[in-house]
Amino acid sequence: ILRQSLAALPMYALGGARRSEVLGLMGADVWGDGRHVSIRICRNRSRRIKTRAAKRTIHFDLRRRPEVGQFSTWADMDGSRQQPWLRDRSFVFSPLDSPRSAEGRDAIARSCAAAISEVTGRSSERLHRFRHLVAFERVVPMFLSDLDLKWISTLPVDDSTHVSNEA
Question: N or C: which end of the chain has fewer CB within 10 A?
């Protein structure tokens, strides 16, 4: 559960994904080329999507967001333990002995929330806070002056995540 949590957490913190969107990822929803990783958010038998706009693809540049590499490594490793014909239809976060099972996801989410609580010092944390933080970080620059944008570009944080609604 801890290893799965370490893999899932960057998807929340950097991708702004909902809890079920990450924990319901299947092998076919994840792809990459070593420099980029993409995840497709769409409805499946275990995960519903909240709105039509929730159907999207999130792209990460691993050179700028190396933390996503943990997720990519987990997804590759998890897929390699499956029969080739089963990889695309298996959940990325599933019990070792049951790749098509949705069990254990609550424990992964609780572990992620506990890690966030430890870092923030708040006794109660929710993964959904990351969704709002990511949205805030993407929207605020649209309202800043050119001078403020120039100053922000000098900061060490660079968002190289790209979201498209083309699932």
Answer: C
| Sign, Cα dihedral of 161, 108, 102, 96 | positive
Which tokens is 35 given? 């420099």
- Quick: pLDDT tens for 35-52: 999 999 988 877 778 888
Burial label, 87 (beta-carbon count in 10 A; 0-12, 13-18, 19+)? middle
Q: How many residues does the chain have?
A: 167
- The shares of helix, strand and coil residues in the chain, as percent rounded to the nearest 5, are 50, 10, 40
pLDDT digits 0-9 by tens, 95-119: 777 767 777 788 999 999 999 999 8
**Cα–Cα distance for residue pair 102/120, rounded to 1 Å:** 29
Residues 69 and 63: their CA atoms lie apart, in Å, by 9
Burial class (CB in 10 A: 0-12, 13-18, 19+), 117: middle
Q: The tokens 């089963």 sit on which residue? A: 86
Report whether pLDDT(121) > 80.
yes
